[in-house]
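Usage

Read records sequentially. Each one opens with the input sequence:
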Amino acid sequence: MRKKIRNSLSIKVFLWVFSALTICSVLIYGIVFTVLPKQYQITSNKQLDTNTQILVSKLQNMCYEDAVKEIYNFCIQNNSIAILNDENETLSFGEIKSENFMVSTSSIATTVTFSNSEVEYALVISSTSKTADLISILMLRFLPAILAMILLLSFLSAFICSKVIVTPIAKISQISKRMTSLDMTWKCDIESNDEIGVLASSLNTMADQLQETMKELTNANNQLKDDVEKFKSLEEQRRNFFAAVSHELKTPLTILKGQIENMILGYGDYRNHDKYLPEALKSSETIEQLVKEIITISKMESMDLQNTLQEISLKQTTNNTVQAILPFAQDKKIRIHQNISTDVVLFVNPNLWNKALSNILGNAVRHSPCGEDVFISLQSCENATALVIQNTGVSIPETDLPHMFTPFYRTDRSRSKTTGGSGLGLYIVKTILDLHSMAYCIKNTEQGVAFFLYFSDTDRN
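and closes with the structure output:
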């Protein structure tokens, strides 16, 4: 029971209020029981003294006969007795009972002289009222009923107070429990201008701020997770890249080393230096080209792109790239068709852009069979314009398309080593376009393979 009381604010408030009201009511009743009869007696005595003085002043101007009547009326009106006497006779006014004098009484003695006599009379007036004692008796008689009423009113008052005070506090307590579990899907609907209302309003404000902060933390946490995943992905790509670089460098270096050693030792046909020196040179050029592209990628990843951006013409840079790659295309009897009627101004790093465009066109020519065509055009897409470079007579297996921008990834048909590619061309294109936040993709078409590079419509003149 004690534990239940300790753990319940409602019960504690009820007991406190009930005890306080009961004790205060009993004390007040006791004070009234003690003070009221005495105060009534004192007040009665003062009133009797005042009335007696008024009576004496009236009697001074009356004759004896009228004075007797006035004294008689006074005794009736004031519930008292009077004795008027001189040396010869004594007159009594009012009914005198022996039990009256057992009650606390008050007497006033004075002298009076009437208008028709010079004899001085002694006047004694005594109060015979039992009112003060009756008050005490009645209060004792009604004490059980008064106590029952005090207990009942105290019980009702304590119950109402406990509900009024504890109900909002209990609601706030329940809300605080939900807050500890980070549940902010609530609203404290206590509307008042007192401290509890201010507390409820503060809880609502705090909940809104906590919910907003939790959303921000959740977003930040999700962003952090995404960043961690991206970092892991980049780290994995970096490891894979260097593993692939090691593998790609190992083969030409092994070949070059074997050729040089055999030529130095003069084994068999390797004595013919004129035959194998060009092959060794070709292997060293392959290594050199691979190293140059690796250095290019490293520089791009560490460069500050924003300070190198310039406005360039898409039409002009495309034409320049076509002119540079045209001799290679003519060797394979490949025709390049340009259809860029509307120019687009780009804000890019000119060197990187030219490198990316050259790699895309170079791949289109390199991986097309002899006598095919390469088409360069601008196409309107939803909210964007696409530069499309399509080469005919070739296709890429659908399973290989998602891996086309992976370093050193080659398909069985269109990207074998016999084409002379290093395996980093499209990876360099990807790196450059990612730096410029440009969207891109490779798709198979009915005629061949197409590279799509998307620009915002706001870039078009």
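Summary fields computed downstream for this record:
- The mean pLDDT is 78.
- DSSP finds ten helices and eleven strands in the chain.
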